[in-house]
Write a structure and sequence with these properties.
Elements lengths: L1 H13 L16 H12 L3 E9 L3 E8 L4 E8 L7 H15 L11 E5 L2 E7 L4 E2 H8 L4 H20 L2 E2 L8 E3 L5 E3 L6 E2 L20 H4 L6 H17 L9 H10 L14 H10 L11 H15 L1
Antiparallel strand pairs: 1-2, 2-3, 3-5, 4-5, 6-8, 7-10, 8-9
Length: about 300
């Protein structure tokens, strides 16, 4: 952890002190060209195998650690954002947030570095599937399976919150699944570290709208209970096949999140135990103080409910 912190500090200081013209890395850059640059930057430590996804600010590649003979994922900042100080700091803050957490249900940071002017960080390669793909494939999950997955997500959130890290963008696409369907939380790109500097002067709407808490949708500050609300949305979606609020108009969607109660799960025609629905509705309370107070308690209840259904 201390090594990662020093590397992050070096990147933050150096990237803005040097006047450089970084190499352009984008979705069309060939794996062969990237491997040439990676080899130069890391001393033949990493080999890229396949591009996995191209996000807004970074591109993720599946790779291999040659020295330790293990699969890894490398996330590289898009070159067009290098001159945007806020984006670069957010990219580095994502690695910093993950470096503060040590838990099997939260993705780990192995190392950070720089490829010809562009920052990158290295994580374990968890698997090919995420929770979003699983829900799309199965439409909805049996209650016991949904509660079990929810339990491990809550345990990951518990570790994050103990490290003073609030995710703020929890959603199925950010929950990777191992081959044994063990969930691992990733993508801390808009995470807030409560003991670190603010990257914006005032609260703003951050995260994916479908999974935002009412306070986030209203532009207010998120806290640990905001992540628990997002977990409630994920549980609702796993159990019914749909988030509680859906609208093509983003303004109307935010209004529904802020004002309307979640539709009863019975409307979806799926048999869900009353105690499970009551629990999810508790997490989906409009006011943070009416939700469960902590991820630890949430995990405890999820485990109890899952065992009762097994």
């Amino acid at each position: 952890m201390e090594r990662v912190k020093k590397e992050l500090q070096y990147l933050e200081e150096e990237l803005f002190l040097r006047n450089r013209n970084p190499v352009v890395i984008d979705t069309w850059t060939s794996i062969e060209e990237l491997n040439r640059m990676i080899t130069t930057a890391t001393g033949e430590t990493y080999e890229l195998l396949q591009k996995k996804e191209g996000g807004t600010f970074g591109i993720v590649y599946k790779g291999r650690d040659r020295k330790l003979n293990r699969l890894v994922a490398l996330k590289i900042l898009r070159s067009e954002f290098l001159q945007n100080r806020e984006v670069v700091l957010r990219f580095q803050r994502e690695a910093q947030a993950m470096s503060l957490i040590r838990h099997p249900n939260v993705v780990e940071v192995y190392a950070v570095g720089e490829i010809e002017g562009l920052p990158f960080f290295v994580m374990p390669f968890v698997g090919e599937e995420d929770l979003e793909k699983l829900i799309q494939k199965e439409t909805f999950l049996p209650p016991q399976k949904a509660l079990s997955i929810g339990y491990y997500i809550a345990k990951g959130l518990e570790a994050a919150h103990q490290a003073k890290v609030i995710h703020r963008d929890l959603k199925p696409a950010n929950i990777l699944l191992s081959e044994k369907e063990m969930p691992v939380i990733t993508d801390f790109g808009v995470a807030y570290i409560s003991h670190g500097e603010r990257l914006t002067d005032a609260p703003s709407i951050m995260g994916t709208f479908l999974y935002l808490s009412p306070e986030q949708a209203d532009g207010l500050q998120a806290d640990e209970r905001s992540d628990l609300y997002s977990l409630g949305v994920i549980l609702y979606e796993m159990l019914t096949g749909s988030p509680p609020y859906v609208d093509e108009n983003p303004i109307q969607l935010l209004r529904k999140i802020i004002e309307l109660p979640p539709p009863p799960m019975s409307e979806w025609g799926i048999a869900i135990p009353d105690e499970v629905e009551d629990f999810v509705r508790k997490l989906l309370s409009k006011k943070p103080e009416n939700r469960l107070p902590s991820a630890k308690m949430t995990a405890k209840i999820l485990k109890k409910l899952a065992i009762s259904l097994s």
